[in-house]
Design brief:
Elements (H helix, E strand, L loop, with lengths): L2 H19 L5 H32 L1 E14 L4 E5 L5 E2 L2 H13 L13 E9 L4 E2 L2
Antiparallel strand pairs: 1-2, 1-4, 2-3, 4-5
Length: about 130
């Protein structure tokens, strides 16, 4: 992913060095170009990430299944699932996505599971090695 920023950076440095040697580029032009380049890289990072993640989800490399345990406390309105290691899923959008996939597969709704019940979630992994739900 960083390759998309490293190669243009090297190209810009080469062009600036050639411009300084040929007296085509002055310091004001260099400063303005550098600031413009930094702003472009900063603001295009989100777009680049979105495009790369989109293609990651279209080019499937492998599928994995992970086992999760339900952590539920109705009194405190807490609902999480965790993998007994380090990954907690507690955001509503992620839980709702898992729930809708379970319902489509004719499985019990995620929100009807009890505390300490286990469930399996199937992920796909794209070419960037980022897992996603389909």
């Amino acid at each position: 992913m960083e390759l998309f920023f490293i190669l243009p950076s090297i190209l810009v440095v080469i062009l600036i060095v050639i411009g300084f040697k040929g007296k085509v580029v002055n310091r004001v032009f260099f400063l303005g170009t550098s600031i413009l380049f930094l702003f472009t890289v900063f603001f295009s990072k989100r777009l680049t990430d979105d495009v790369l993640l989109y293609f990651n989800s279209k080019i499937k490399v492998e599928e994995i299944s992970k086992d999760y345990v339900v952590l539920r406390n109705d009194e405190n309105k807490v609902f999480h699932i965790y993998d007994k290691r380090s990954e907690f899923i507690s955001f509503d959008d992620q839980l709702n996505k898992i729930d809708s996939l379970r319902i489509k597969s004719n499985l019990k709704s995620l929100y009807k599971l009890e505390n300490n019940d286990t469930l399996q979630v199937h992920y796909k992994i794209g070419f960037l090695k980022v897992k996603y739900l389909e």
